[in-house]
């Protein structure tokens, strides 16, 4: 508590239900962790716990690690940190799913990376005579979600073919023993709605529910929270920012935040308005987009940074980056790994990533990885290469995670003994062999030899059988085929190149704005800022697109560059750059 600001301390100390508004860079996560630590004081020595629900697995890991530094031994049994999907799966659906008619337990979670995902989607589409699936169709299947009335919402709701195929998709998932994310939430809602005693049981366990990124909560998720509140045994601490609500395509409804706060009798007038991330010049641009009350102010180490946000127009994105952004990084001593290029979608970044790679600029992001990330050996190989060329304190942890997922993908079993002393011995052997083979710097030769060695080491440790061990070498052949299709200069591909993906601090990152949410960078270049693209000419919610633009602007600490590149239709720069936006266009 000693390191908190007055605003943060007031939020942490409030003893009852609270819906807290937090501006970008306000120390929201720190405040949430402080609330978690403070409330554990009240449950220590009792059977009760604190549930912290956040939006991404990355946020889960960050909160767990930072909270652990402030807690006493044994406190880990008094709190759980998870995504809403993981919470519903582990606390509701798996223990109580048997209450749902026809539900079978023990199902695996279907993700986009799973090879069965596309086969299930194709099967479902074929049942409604739809056979030519596009990337947009797969994205719609991936985002399938329901509202409390069982109606499809979000991105999938706008795809008629996917809506018709959805029942067959879910049926096929069940037949093959899978659960998708939409089913997890809807099934949990049904359990809690139809069996109130389950909510009573959960709330007897959890004294507090701390909810992060509350502005991105869907109607169904809010209904789940209402059912928990109805048990009258738990209190709620929800934190978010309506100006950063950018997940409408998943069904998020920021307009439900206020009514929920009123429903639970929460205090709603507290705010974190101090930005510890960005310079005052960048904060001023943010305030022009969404003025706050109280106004957001820059309070961090970059507060007085004199770099003015700039606009580059009339060039291609590649020219803007190489002729303006990269020189600006060098002029202001901003490392390449502390900079990012942001766009609305992956498609506009892929060509740019390849151009920059050919230009000699190390990049990570779409089009930078010359093979599919889902290949069995890919992530483990990258982490091993990263440990060779750029060892750091996180090496062992990242290697352990990569090994766990590789063994799980190869065997279909979650081998938690990967994290045991025996697992650490395996990691040491893998790393030692990786360093020995790296004496030959060619990446392709290293991949072939290391894949064989990995299979043998894991087989000797009884993590895989002989057939599964051979899958690592087969995976490398798939990676090489991917590289061939992308015309990668494999003769000059080095171990350092592979290690970039494990240690991206040495490379320029390319990312969508959605993916960058929650992150920050010393320098940000926002591309694609043309009328008709940002906002899109077909968009029926310009305010939502403005919020997306706002999130991109607020990722920057020191340097912010807007790129309104030329296009084939002669579109002018985005209106978000004009007087009704950040105001960098001449009147």
Describe the strand arrangement of the main beta sheet, using strand numbers: 3-2-6-7-1-8
How much helical structure, as a percent, in the residues?
40-55%
- Average pLDDT over all residues: 90
The secondary structure category is: alpha/beta
Beta-strand residue percentage: 5-15%
Number of strands: 16
Uncertain regions spanning at least 5 consecutive residues: none
- Measured distance between first and last alpha carbons: 48 Å
C-alpha Rg (nearest Å): 25 Å
Number of helices: 22
Q: Give a short account of the largest sheet.
A: 6 strands, parallel
Quaternary status: single chain
The rough form would be described as: globular
Features:
22 helices; globular; 587 residues; six-stranded parallel sheet; alpha/beta; 12% strand
Explained architecture:
- 46% of the residues lie in helices and 12% in strands.
- It has 22 helices and 16 strands.
- It has helices spanning 6-13, 28-43, 57-68, 84-96, 115-126, 135-142, 160-175, 181-194, 196-205, 219-229, 257-263, 280-289, 317-331, 347-359, 378-389, 395-411, 421-437, 443-460, 466-485, 495-499, 513-516, 542-553, and strands at residues 18-22, 49-54, 79-83, 108-109, 178-179, 206-211, 235-240, 271-272, 274-275, 297-298, 310-313, 339-343, 363-364, 508-512, 521-526, 556-564.
- Helix 22 (542-553) links the parallel strand 15 and strand 16.
- The mean pLDDT is 90.
Concise account of the structure shown:
This protein has 587 residues and is α/β, with parallel strands linked by helices. It contains 22 helices and 16 strands. The strands form 4 sheets. The protein has a 6-stranded parallel beta sheet with strand order 3-2-6-7-1-8. Strands 11-16-15-12-14-13 form a 6-stranded parallel beta sheet.
């Amino acid at each position: 508590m000693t390191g908190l600001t007055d605003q943060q301390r007031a939020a942490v100390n409030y003893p009852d239900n609270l819906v807290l508004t937090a501006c970008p860079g306000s120390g929201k996560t720190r405040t949430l962790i402080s609330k978690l630590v403070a409330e554990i004081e009240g449950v220590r020595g009792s059977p009760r716990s604190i549930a912290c629900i956040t939006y991404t697995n990355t946020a889960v890991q960050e909160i767990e690690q930072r909270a652990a530094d402030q807690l006493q031994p044994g406190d880990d049994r008094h709190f759980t940190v998870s995504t809403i999907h993981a919470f519903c799966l582990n606390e509701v659906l798996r223990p109580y799913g048997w209450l749902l008619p026809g539900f079978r337990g023990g199902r695996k979670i279907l993700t986009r990376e799973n090879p069965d995902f596309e086969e299930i989607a194709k099967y479902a589409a074929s049942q409604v005579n739809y056979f030519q699936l596009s990337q947009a169709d797969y994205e719609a299947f991936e985002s399938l979600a329901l509202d409390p009335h069982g109606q499809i919402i979000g991105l999938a709701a706008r795809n008629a073919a996917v809506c018709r195929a959805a029942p067959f998709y879910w049926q096929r998932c069940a037949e093959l023993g899978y659960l998708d994310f939409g089913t997890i939430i809807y099934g949990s809602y049904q359990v809690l709605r139809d069996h109130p005693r389950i909510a009573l049981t959960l709330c007897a366990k959890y004294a507090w529910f701390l909810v992060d990124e509350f502005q991105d909560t869907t109607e169904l998720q809010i209904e789940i929270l209402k059912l928990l509140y109805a048990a009258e045994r738990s209190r709620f601490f929800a934190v978010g920012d309506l100006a950063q609500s950018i997940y409408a395509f998943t069904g998020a409804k920021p307009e439900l935040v206020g009514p929920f706060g009123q429903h639970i009798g929460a205090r709603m007038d507290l705010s974190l308005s101090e930005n510890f991330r960005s310079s005052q010049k960048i904060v001023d641009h943010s305030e022009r987009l969404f003025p706050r009350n109280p106004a957001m102010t820059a309070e961090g180490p970059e507060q007085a940074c004199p770099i003015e946000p700039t606009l580059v127009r009339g060039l291609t994105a590649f020219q803007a980056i190489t002729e303006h952004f990269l020189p600006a990084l060098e002029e202001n001593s901003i490392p390449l790994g502390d900079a990012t290029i942001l766009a609305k979608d992956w498609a506009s970044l892929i060509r740019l990533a390849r151009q920059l790679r050919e230009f000699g600029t190390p990049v990570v992001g779409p089009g930078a990885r010359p093979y599919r990330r889902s290949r069995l050996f890919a992530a483990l190989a990258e982490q091993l290469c990263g440990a060779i060329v750029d060892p750091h304190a996180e090496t062992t942890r990242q290697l352990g995670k990569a090994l766990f997922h590789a063994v799980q993908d190869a065997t279909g079993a979650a081998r938690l003994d990967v994290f045991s002393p025996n697992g650490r011995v395996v990691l040491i052997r893998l790393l030692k062999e990786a360093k020995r083979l790296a004496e030959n710097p060619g990446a392709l030769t290293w991949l072939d030899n290391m894949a064989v060695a990995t299979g043998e080491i894991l087989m000797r440790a009884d993590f895989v059988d002989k057939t599964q061990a051979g899958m690592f070498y087969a995976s490398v052949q798939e990676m090489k085929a991917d590289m061939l299709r992308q015309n990668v200069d494999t003769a000059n591909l080095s171990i350092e190149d592979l290690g970039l993906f494990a240690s991206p601090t040495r490379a320029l990152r390319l990312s969508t704005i959605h993916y960058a949410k929650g992150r920050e960078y010393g320098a940000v270049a926002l591309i694609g800022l043309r009328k008709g693209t940002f906002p899109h000419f077909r968009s029926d919610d310009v305010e939502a697109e403005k919020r997306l633009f706002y999130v991109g602007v607020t990722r920057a600490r020191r340097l912010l560059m807007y790129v309104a590149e030329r296009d084939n239709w002669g579109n002018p720069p985005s209106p978000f750059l004009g007087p009704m936006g950040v105001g960098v266009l001449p009147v």
